[in-house]
Amino acid sequence: MSPDVANPGVVEAFIDGIVIPQMKLQHSPSGVVTLVKDGQVIFSKGYGYQDIEKGIPVDPATTMFRVASISKLFTWIAVMQQVEQGNLDLDVDVNQYLKTFQIGDTWPGQPVTLRHILSHTAGFEDGELGYFIFHDADRIMPLAKSLATYIPERINPPGEHTGYSNWGAALAGLIVSNVSGIEFNKYIRKNIFDVLGMKYATFVDPLPSVLEPYRAKSYSWGAGKYIEKKSEILANFGPCGASAASAVEINKLARAILNDGELNGGRILKPETMQKMLTTLHSHDSRTRGMAYGFLTYPYTGIEVIGHDGGTSFFNSHLGISLENKLVLFASFSGPGAPNIRTALKDNFYDYFFPVNASSVARPTDFIRRADKYAGSYHPWRANFSTIEAIIYAFDGEKEVAPMADNTLLVGDTRFEEVDRNLFREVGGDRQIVFQENDKGEITDYISDGFAVIQMFRVPFYRTSTFATILIVTSLIVFLGVLLRRLYQGERYKLLPTRDKSAFRASLAVSVSNLMFFVLLMVLLLTATDLNHEVPSMLSVVLIFPIIALLATAYHLYQSTVVWRCRLGSSVWSRIRFSTVTLCGLMMVWLYGYWNFIGFNYYS
Predict the structure, then answer these.
(1) How far is residue 349's CA from residue 574's CA, in Å, rounded to a whole number?
(2) N or C end: fewer C-beta atoms under 10 angstroms in the chain?
(3) Rounded Cα–Cα distance for residues 76 and 31 (Å)
């Protein structure tokens, strides 16, 4: 028999048992958890302090947490409000709603629509380095200007692949503002917050002075104590993540969603529109839970949960809504370990109160014969492809899929067994993944059930972290050897013939330029304290060296022809050694070019 989720004592004992030790372990200064069942508050509790210095404890009713991407739910509701009023059409080119800029016609005849944006299938690349979140209020600009300044590349035709897009959600907010004639923050206040009586909620960023006393402050942890940090600002892309709200206010939104768009006489959507928003809008495979109208679905088998998560550098939140069980779980935590606490709470909560016995499957004994078709490295489509961020997104999200001798697939660190064509279930669990294939039967992508916004695509060997690591390490060893050889030769270098000396200088130029790039890059990464929030000026210096390396390599390639034509050096081996430097230089130039390091490909 399942534990009683409507019993306050049982719920509190369970949540306290997870949250209290996890917050201590993860150095989280503040947190809040609320649970609503059948319209009744079962549990509502604050943990820690919203202001440590003043000793102000967290109050679920008034303490305002940064809920990040949960903000998108307000934006999606605003879009559907305008659809109800006939001001928006989900299936027309969004360019007709834009006044000051246009999205490029990358795929003629395939425009981006609001339906694509709601399902994160618009085909935009992602990006954030140095401009998405920041601390300095002087950098705030109007929403339209910010979106025009940072237009992402269109990397896929719309509707083909799923790639979570903050820019797309912010664009939807701008469109609402354009067609309604009301600035976005004011629109949300008038048409959602005020309608639902959400006093302690705002999209204004930084918080207005009247709400500032209720802000949960940002803290890091160091030297055995909490260190207050500047508040993060997301105002330039506000509709995708700038809201701050108390737990009680977020519950008002969730209760309205459960009640067909109405709460205490205030209505934000017609019943039929609210119900439509919670149905599947897009799925790559009918056997997996896809995207609703902006709402995420979650992979819990014992309970169907819809909602959204959100995270910044200092806050992580979860809003889960079960339509069938009339249940709302909201949790938000701050501090460096906030993501771990959020995950521990939500996963254990749903598994504990809504358990399911994983059904056993008859594992096919011949799977090993076809397992190789799935093997390889996979990267998320939520990635960057046009700037230096590309390598960060790719390597951070890389997953290896490998066949195992026991007729299973190892995906990352989890084993899966085949249950149907291209469909796999976690061994001993209930997580599912489904692979996708092209017209030739070749595996191209996979999707995890309940994580529809994270579609993974199969990458060629030269895009993998293993290949890049081997190339870099090998080349740096060769370049270091050139420098050591110069030191070893000492005075003998001065006695070399002019042509030999010129060739050696070419090797030194290639080696020094490449080594300096990596040395300075490591210094930058180790000393930059806020790289995501602001790009340091040193980066422009670092990026000079790939350009120098390109020029030096071109000269070295020329010198290589001279070395072989004129038989320079003491032996064939010395000429081979020289050409090895050329080869390493060319490989590094290719690497720099492929990952956008030649030039200044970032937003300063």
Answers:
(1) 66
(2) N
(3) 26
Quick check: 244 and 250 in contact, CB under 8 A? no
Q: Going by C-beta distance under 8 Å and a sequence separation of 6 or more, which residues neighbour residue 102?
A: 95
Which two three-digit tokens encode residue 30?
Answer: 């503040």
Residues 174 and 311 in one domain: yes
Whether 97 and 231 share a structural domain: yes
Asked which of 322, 353, 384 is the last residue of a domain, the reply is 353
pLDDT in tens, 152-195: 999 999 999 999 999 999 999 999 999 999 999 999 999 999 99
For the stretch 426-454, pLDDT in tens is 998 889 999 999 999 999 999 999 999 99
Q: Are residues 455 and 349 in the same domain?
A: no
Distance between CA 548 and CA 553 in Å, rounded? 8
Does residue 604 lie in a domain region? no
Supply the pLDDT for residue 358: 64
Q: Give yes or no: residues 286 and 139 share one domain.
A: yes
Tokens in use for 152?
């992402």
d(CA 22, CA 34): 17
Instruction: Kindly state whether residues 449 and 532 are assigned to the same domain.
Output: no
pLDDT at residue 551 tops 80? yes
Amino acid in position 447: I
Q: What single string gives the DSSP state of each residue in 283-306?
A: -SSTTS--B-SS-EE---SSS--E
Residues sharing a CB contact under 8 Å with residue 405, sequence separation 6 or more, in sequence order: 368
Q: Is 562 helix (H, G, I), strand (E, B) or coil?
A: helix
Q: Which two tokens stand for residue 362?
A: 């008859």
Predicted confidence (pLDDT) at residue 491 exceeds the cutoff of 70: no
Tell me, what CATH number does 233's domain have? Answer: 3.40.710.10
Report the CATH number at residue 427.
2.40.128
Structural domain span for residue 481: 465-594
Residues ≥6 apart with Cβ < 8 Å to 463: 377, 379, 394, 594
End-to-end CA, the chain: 58
The count of structural domains within the chain is: 3
Is position 203 within any domain? yes
